[in-house]
Amino acid sequence: MTPVNLKSLAEELNMSIATVSRALRDSHEVSEATKQRVRALAAARHYEPNAYASSLRRNISKTIGVVIPKVANHFFALAINGIEEAARQAGYHVLIYLTHDDYAREVSIVQHLKGGRVDGLLMSVASGTEDFAHIKSLREANIPIVFFDRVCAEVATAKVTTNDYESGYQATEHLIQAGCKHIAHLLISNNLSIGQFRLQGYLDALTAHGRPADPDLILHGVMDNQQNVGLIRELLQRRPDIDGVFASVERLAISTYHVCNELGRRIPEDIKVIGFSNLEAAALLDPPLSTITQPAYDIGREAAKILLRAVEKKKAVLPSQSVVLESTLFARQSTAG
Amino acid sequence: MTPVNLKSLAEELNMSIATVSRALRDSHEVSEATKQRVRALAAARHYEPNAYASSLRRNISKTIGVVIPKVANHFFALAINGIEEAARQAGYHVLIYLTHDDYAREVSIVQHLKGGRVDGLLMSVASGTEDFAHIKSLREANIPIVFFDRVCAEVATAKVTTNDYESGYQATEHLIQAGCKHIAHLLISNNLSIGQFRLQGYLDALTAHGRPADPDLILHGVMDNQQNVGLIRELLQRRPDIDGVFASVERLAISTYHVCNELGRRIPEDIKVIGFSNLEAAALLDPPLSTITQPAYDIGREAAKILLRAVEKKKAVLPSQSVVLESTLFARQSTAG
DNA sequence: TTTATTTACGTAAACGTTTGCAGCAAATCG
DNA sequence: CGATTTGCTGCAAACGTTTACGTAAATAAA
């Protein structure tokens, strides 16, 4: 029942704590013979070094934080998967925090993390975040940060995203080529650059094909899904000429399906639908949903790798690089000509 | 650029470190006047206590670990959501580890966690885990553990599950009432009690309705989905009399959909399908999938709450209670009469 | 007044680890 | 043979907090 730590091991071996510590860290300063003895006893006693003592002394936590809006979303779940993989390989631990897209909560989380609990931070900003002082203050605390997906333009650091503009362009073009004349764009209204890029891709694709961009066809959704269903219903009823819908986020595509079911609009005959989505079951929907799918796992993994490189080099502030991983358009029944 | 810690605050305020510490922890041993001064400066300097020093000294990490097979699965994602919520409310942090259903990885993770990095552990065991020595050894390290969903019968501690037996019974009965004569049961073959309960529910429901249980109709799936598709195809071809499928896990239901599409079997006309699933889009599948849906969020939240209560009371070993939260059967098109 | 009690603060020892420095043999070199 | 190097080990001081204990002053009780 006595605690097993360096002290107890040292006593049992009749050597100093320092030697035991060095032996376990495989220092060249200790003879092979003693290393063997130390390792043998450590194994026998199931010694595990105290992470906090080590962290305190070395000022290194071997932990990264992940701050995301939500986890019950296949994109973020996959991203975490990638992050965990990269972290594990590098011997790092992963702390997870959910903001639920709440600015106050995001600030509170980031604030707490400045206590040195993490060596670095991965973040996808909350949609409501407009002030970035809390993020900038991480720099004073020497905590590097890497954004992924929902990046923050105001903060200069490494960012990993997908090609949102091109994807928005492609999705729109895909609908045009499928024969759509009046294409609506559904997005979540906020100040996230990611939505702006997709919107711009949509607008430019329309222009490139000689279509006038109609502001009336751009629907700004809200946080509440039930409310979005109402908004979409109202739009489709007000504008019966709409024959194509490009949803900027998955749940708006799903809501569109619900509204179409409700209104008796057939997909794809009456309205074609495409949306950004990482839904596994997209191919099994009725009808199978055409998607632009982000490489979520790779985005998480790449972001983590970049962060970990910076952490290992003790680079608190990263060069303002931007890594772009390409999304893939899967054409399925919902946009069939 | 000088570090802001208790020492620097104390110097600036001309008082001892002890007083500053006590003031910040709102101790009754310090006057209101000095508390004010301390708090003011701490706020001005953006002081954040060093988590590791505190943890080392108090032997409390304010952190819980979550060890699960995967995160890219709506059930676990929702569970994490509930866990994070409970943890946040109690002021705890959440470390996450993925086993990918790999026994060796699970052992390695648990081993490392004995270093005191976490105050308690939430776990859903890997499907390949047969030996539980690594889990039992947590007891020596005074780390309480709570199982959720995939519990471990060999270890006496608190467990949070859903009513797997009753749900299996209900699902089977649902198919019987829908008119199915030959009901297959698909499960993942492993030693998890959870699958055994569902299977037993299936068997008992058949018996209760005077149907002989046919071992040939029980398909033991494997880890690889592609392989499962082959197995299911083989089963449905060998036994064309099968008119109902009860899938123990989501991906087997999905694979069944794929096979039925491929073989031209109509759902629900030729074969009715029901499965355990937390798929959000179940209602949008073609056809909408009848599901038994687990209260994933609540399971996670409840498990975390139980664990946190134990942690706060420094109860390293929890009473062997079992909390059962009920699943809900959603009857949809895939089992329509 | 003296003697308890309370209030408010400081001193210093932990917590377990890492690491600069020193010591002290034995080995090598000039 | 003395001087220097090399190889191994121990001493002790950190890292930033928390907290048992001590103490001085102020207040209350006698």
Question: What layout of secondary structure does this protein have?
Answer:
Two copies of one chain form a homodimer.
Chain A: H1 6-13, H2 17-24, H3 32-44, H4 51-58, E1 63-68, H5 74-89, E2 93-98, H6 103-113, E3 120-123, H7 133-136, E4 145-148, E5 158-162, H8 164-177, E6 183-188, H9 193-208, E7 218-221, H10 225-238, E8 244-247, H11 250-263, E9 272-276, E10 290-293, H12 296-312, E11 322-325, E12 328-330
Helix pairs in contact in A: 1-2, 5-12, 8-9, 10-11
Chain B binds a DNA duplex (30 and 30 nucleotides) through residues 3, 5-7, 15-19, 21-22, 25, 28-31, 34, 49-50, 52-59, 116.
Explain this structure:
The structure is a homodimer of 337-residue chains. Chain A has 337 residues and is α/β, with parallel strands linked by helices. In chain A, 42% of the residues lie in helices and 16% in strands. Chain A contains twelve helices and twelve strands. Chain A has helices at residues 6-13, 17-24, 32-44, 51-58, 74-89, 103-113, 133-136, 164-177, 193-208, 225-238, 250-263, 296-312; strands at residues 63-68, 93-98, 120-123, 145-148, 158-162, 183-188, 218-221, 244-247, 272-276, 290-293, 322-325, 328-330. The first copy, chain A, has a six-stranded parallel β-sheet, with helices on both faces. In chain A, strand 8, helix 11 and strand 9 form a beta-alpha-beta unit. The longest helix of chain A has 17 residues, at 296-312. Chain A is elongated and about 85 Å long. The termini of chain A are far apart. The model of chain A has no long low-confidence stretch (mean pLDDT 93). Chain B binds a DNA duplex (30 and 30 nucleotides) through helix 2 and helix 4.
